[in-house]
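Two proteins, back to back. First:
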Amino acid sequence: MAQLKDIGTNVLKWTRIVLPFKRLRYFPPQFIVRNPVVEGVKLAFKQGCEVAILVFNINNLKELHGLLGEDYYRAFIKELKLSFRTVVQLELCDEDVLVLHDHYSDGFTLFLKVDQNWGCVFEIDAALSKVIKEVKQKLSLSFPCAQPEFESGYMFIEKKHYSIQEAIYKAHQQALAMAEKRIDSEFNEMLYMIRKIVSKKEIRLLAQPIIDVESKVVRAWEMLTRGPRDTAYESPLTLFSVARQTDYLYDLEMIVLEKTFEQIQKTACKHAIFVNFTPLSLGNKTFIRDLNKLLERYKNIPPSQFTIEITERDSIEGIELLLDNIKALRCIGFQIAVDDTGSGYASLNTISAIMPDIIKIDRSVIQDIDKNPVKESMLKGLLLVAKETGSLVVAEGIENAEEASVLSRNNVDLAQGYFFARPESLQKSLASS
C-alpha cells in the first residue's frame, strides 16, 4: 500500500496540465478533479489504442539561468513553454495528444494516443525530432543566444498491468531513463532485456496473407514480429522502441530476416515473402555483407522470393548507403516495396527516389474509403503514381467488405487486412490457405 501511495503521489504531482476546451470530451470536468492522466489513458485503451509517453528533458537549464540572469530567465522559460505548446498543437494531430504537462525546471512530457494510423515507433521518433527542431527555431527569434539542449525518450504504457496508475508511473520512469540514458535500474533493465532478446533471438514471427483482390488467391505473406510471450516486449511497439533507443534496431531487424529464412525452409513455402526494414538498417554499411551470409546459408531459397518493405515513415534523407544498398539488393534479385504510402509527407519523395516494385497504401487512406469520396480520389491518385513507376499496389488494413469493394472497382492489385485473415504462424497460415 505504501508503494502504491508513493506512485499515486508522484503521478498527481504532474499538475500543470494543458486541456484545451475542445479536449474536454476526453476529460469530462468530473475527471479533472480526480486524475485526468489515468482516465485519459483508460479511455484510449478502451478505444483500442496504445498510449506512448514522450519525455523532453532540458539538460542545460542551470547554464541558461546563469547566462540570462533571473528576469530574462523567467521570460525565457515562459517563452519556452508557449513555444512548446504551440509546436505540439501544430505538428502533432490534436486528436492524438491526451495530456501535456511540464516538470517546471526539467522539461515536458506528452501522453500520445497511438492508433493504427500511426503504425510504428519510427513516426514517434520523427515527431520527437520535429518538435525539438521547431521549438528551437521559435526560441531563436526571441533568444538567439539561449538555446535549450533537449534529450528525448519514449515508452508505451503497458496494457496488461494490473494498475493503470502504476503502469503510467513505470512507463514515465522508463521514458525518462531513455531520455537521459542513465545508468540506473530502469535503463539497465530495458538494456538487459533487449540484449537478452537479441542474443537468444527470442522473437516470434506471424504471417498475414496478401490477397489477389479479384481472385481472392493468396499471392504473398507479410512477416510480423512479436517479442517474448507474456512480457511487455511481446508488443512490437515496445520491442522496436526499446531496440531503437538502445541501438539494437539493426541487430533486431537482421534477426527477423534470419528467422524468416528459417520459417521458409521449415515450411517449404513457395509464396513471395514481405519483410519490413527501416531505412536506417537498410543503409547500414554491413547490411549487404550480413545478407550475403544468410543467402550462403540458405542456398535453396531464392532472393526473388523476398520483397523488402521500406518503412516510408522513416525519412530516407541523409542515409548515405541506402540507395547503393537498394541497388545491390535488386542486383541480387530482391524486390523492393515502399510501405505506408499516403501516411506521411515523404511518400512521393521516397517513391521517386527508389522507384519501388510495389507500393503499399497505408490504412489511413483505406479506412472508411467506401464512405469518403476524397479518400477514393486519393487512392486513384496513388494508382496513377504506381502506373507511372510500373509498381504493383497493395492496399493495407482492409477490415470489411465495403472497403474491399472499393478496391475491386478501382482495379487494385493486392490487399491485406483482418477482412481476409488475421496473422498466424506461417505453418498454420499455409495449412489453412
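And the second protein:
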Amino acid sequence: MKFPGRRKIKHYFPVTQSNSSLPKSEVQPNQDTYIVGLDETIVDVIATVDEEFLARHGIRKGLSNLVTPEQASAIYQELVIEQRISDHFAGGTIGNTLHNYSVLADDKSVLLGVMSQHIALNSPEYHYLCATSSKVDMHHLQGVAGDIGRGITLITADGERTFAIAPNAMDDIAPESVNEDVIANAAAFVTCAYPLRHAGKPIKDTLMKCLALAKQHQVPVIITLGTQHLVEEYRDEIQSIIEQYASVVAMNEQEAEALTGEAQTLLAAEKALQWCDMVLLTAGAEGLYLCGYTDDQSKRGTTHALKSQAISDFNQWEFSRPQRPSDCDTPIKVYSHIDPYLGGPAQIHNTNGAGDGALSALLHDIAANHYHQQQVPHSSKHTTQHLAYSSFAQICKYANRVSYEILSQHSPRLSKGLPEKEDSLEQAYWAR
C-alpha cells in the first residue's frame, strides 16, 4: 500500500520485503488490506437532443424524470443510432469513492452491488467496467438479468439539462450475496444513505446486514449522506443508523444542516459528533472540516494560526491523531479546517464527486493505519488505538488536494494519483 498524503519523503510499507508470489486481482481477506463498499451501480450518459426528442419520449424538460427500463432502453438505443452520446461516466457515490481510493492507495477495494450478467460491447455496463480501476475487486458483485442503473442527461440547444433516470436492477443485491469474511477482515466498510429510500428492495436489507457484520467484527463504518432532500426525508432513521453503527459521517454543509438543524457549519459538525467518532464536512468555497476525538493525554497543539468561529481557537489540537471516544481515558473534541487548495481551481469543470474524493483520501489514511498496525504492531504509533494514521490537519491537507483534482476535471473519478512533482506554489502550500 502506498503511504497516504504528501510528505517530503515518500513512504511505502513494508519498506523492504521480497515477494515471489504472483499478485491476485481478487481480495484475499486474511492477507490483503482493503476497504469494502456497498453501492447502487449506475452509469451516467450525457447526450445532446432537441425538444422534439423530449416530447416524443414523454420527457419533461428541465426536470428529473423517472422512466421504466423499457423507456430507458428505447431512449438509449435512439441516442446510439443517432450518435448523440458525448460521454459515459461510471457513477455511484461509493463506486466513485472506491475507485479513487484504489487509485490513491494503489491497492485493492471490494465493490458490493449488482452487474448485468450479459454485457455488450459499448453498452453502459461495458463503460462502467472500463472506467473503474482494476484494483477494485468486482468478484463479489451479484449478477442480474437486467441492466444496472442509467442516469441519462439530455442537453438541449439552450443548455437546459433534463434527466431520465432508470434504476433498473441496481437495488436488487440480496443479503445472501454478502460474504461475511470479506467484511470481517476489511479495514473499513463504506456506504451511503441512498438505499434507505428503497424499503421494498433487497438493497436495504443488504445494507443492514453489512452494517451488523461490520459492527460485530469491529470494522469502522463510514456513511456518506447523499443529498439534502434525502436527509430531510429520512433524518430520524439516518440519525439512528449513525448512532448505532457509524464511526465516520461524511457530508456537505446542506446535508449537515438537514441532519443536525444547525446552519453554522462548525456547530453542525460538533452536534454530529454526539452520534459518531469523526465527521468529514465539505463546505464548498469555505473549504473542509475534519472533526473528531483524541485522548487528552496525547493531544498535540497546532503550529498553524489559531482559528475562531462559534468555537474559539477550535483548531488548537489539530495535530492530534483521531481516536474513538471509547479508546480514550479522557476524550476531547478536535476540530481542523482548511481553505480550498490554492484557492480552488482556476476553472471548475465538475462539482460532482469532490466530496467523494475527499472521503477517499480519509479512507486511504484509515486503511494505512490498519495496514501499518498489521505490519509493525509494536510501533509507537500503536501503543494506543487510533482510527487513522495521520493527524487531523494532515488528513485535511490530503483530502483537500484530492478534491481539487476532482474539481479540475470533468469526471468524478481520478485517472491517476496525485502528481509526483510539486511546483513552487505547491511546495509553499505543503510546507505550511
